[in-house]
Amino acid sequence: MALDDYKNFAYSTVATAPSPATTGFTLVVQSGDGAKFPTPPFNATVWPSGSQPTTANAEIVRVTSIATDTFTLSPGSDPRAQQEGSSVRSIVVGDQVAATVTAKLFTDLEANYINSWSPAIAVSAGTGVQTLAANSSTTGTGSIYAFPMTIPFPIKFNQVIIAQSQSYMTSNTAASNTYFSNFGIYSMTSNTMALISSSSFSILDSNSGVSFTSNFPTSTATSGYGYGNGNLGAITAVAQGSSYVAGARKVGLQFGGEMSLSAGMYWLALLTYRSTAGGVSSIGFSHAGLIGQVINPINMAGSASGLNPLGFGPGEFAQSNVDISGWNGRFIMGFVTNTQQAGYGGTRLPSAIELANFQTANTIATVLPLVSLVST
After folding, report:
1. What distances in angstroms separate CA 108 from CA 2, 116, 241, one per listed residue?
2. Average pLDDT of the chain?
3. Under DSSP, is residue 284 helix (H, G, I), strand (E, B) or coil?
4. Phi, psi (5° rounding) for residue 314?
5. Strand ranges (DSSP E) for 174-246?
């Protein structure tokens, strides 16, 4: 959104008052003073001569145009349109008028959205891969992996780009797999993560001998996904198939349209699992993990390894880390494996996730994935 223009020392007094004083829509400032004010529209404060503006004696007006020294005020029903909760008053000759800083400036700044943001930037030689397969089933269900994203400014975006590492395994055995990817953004209230928005997509691959055909989403929009397919043909060696699709890949997670978030801390949750036909779960795509920044052990939830904070003994720090109300600066992130979590069951993202679910066995994460929120 466009912000109002501004100028320093934009001040004058009323030479000609609105008529009627409480309902008129024009006023004239002193000769030549119109040039001191910013380009409309902007908000100005009008208050009596010889006093300071207060809620009892001042009115905020919306200046929509300036012709030399004549201000046109925002029209509205009788009386004059109220601005920012101020009361309409009788404006008289000699009143002071200034383009002051009002609450609107700050609320507009807060609502002035950016359209791209990367919450974390990897340090050179500090990247790693957060393994997902070791913490999830390869057939039928999966674990939820959630990690934090800090958004310092209001943002509008239509996709979250995330980096992942993947490979492919072929075999002489025929099989087919359907891969389901669910993703959502959560906010935190007390000890519970609440779902803001979510979406999903799927990929199908078919194996016959060592050949491979994949149907995959190629584009997304509010109407859904478009699909394409690729056929590697007759692959004579497993290595050829692996090299064709292996390595780092970026994936755009889209929520079906533009989203907006205010400044704050959020969590991106991912749930990937597959359904296998043919009884050979080792064949097909292998999602090796998410690429990101390796976390210092001191920031790993559920672990007391590494250097302890000043003033903490190892035993005390370990105990505090078990208490979900005192994470001591650690990342609140990891895997949800408890399929008894309401609304989860291993196949969908629940509307709420209890923070305690991140502190059970085998739920610790070691890498903060790299993501970018973008508007395309």
Report:
1. 9, 19, 53
2. 77
3. strand
4. -55, -45
5. 175-189, 192-208, 211-221, 224-234
Taking 3-state DSSP, the helix, strand and coil percentages for the chain, each rounded to the nearest 5, stand at 10, 45, 45
Structure letter (DSSP) for residue 11: E
Spatial CA neighbour of 55 closest among 25, 85, 99: 85
**In the Cβ-directed half-sphere of 250, how many Cα atoms lie within 13 Å?**
10
SS (H, E, C) 239-280: HHHHHHHCEEEEEEEEEEEEEEECCEEEEEEEEEEEEEECCC
Structure confidence by residue, pLDDT tens digits, 253-296: 888 888 889 888 899 999 888 777 765 556 666 666 888 888 77
Q: Which two tokens stand for residue 259?
A: 């989203």
Q: Which amino acid is at 99?
A: A
Residue 217, preceding peptide bond in cis (omega within 30° of 0) = no
Q: Which residues contact 284 (CB under 8 A, 6 or more apart)?
A: 168, 169, 175, 176, 177, 205, 207, 274, 276
pLDDT at 94 over 90: yes
For 42-61, the pLDDT digits (tens) are 999 999 999 999 999 999 99
CA distance 149 to 118: 9
**In the structure encoding, which two tokens stand for residue 60, read together?**
């905020």
Across the range 76-99, mean pLDDT stands at 83
End-to-end CA gap in the chain: 17
* 316, amino acid identity: E
DSSP one-letter code for 93: T
* Structure tokens given for 255: 């929520």
Fold (topology level) of 11-110: Elongation Factor Tu (Ef-tu); domain 3 (2.40.30)
Per-domain residue ranges of the chain: 11-110, 116-295+331-374
Torsion angle of C-alpha atoms 100, 101, 107, 113, degrees rounded to 10: 100
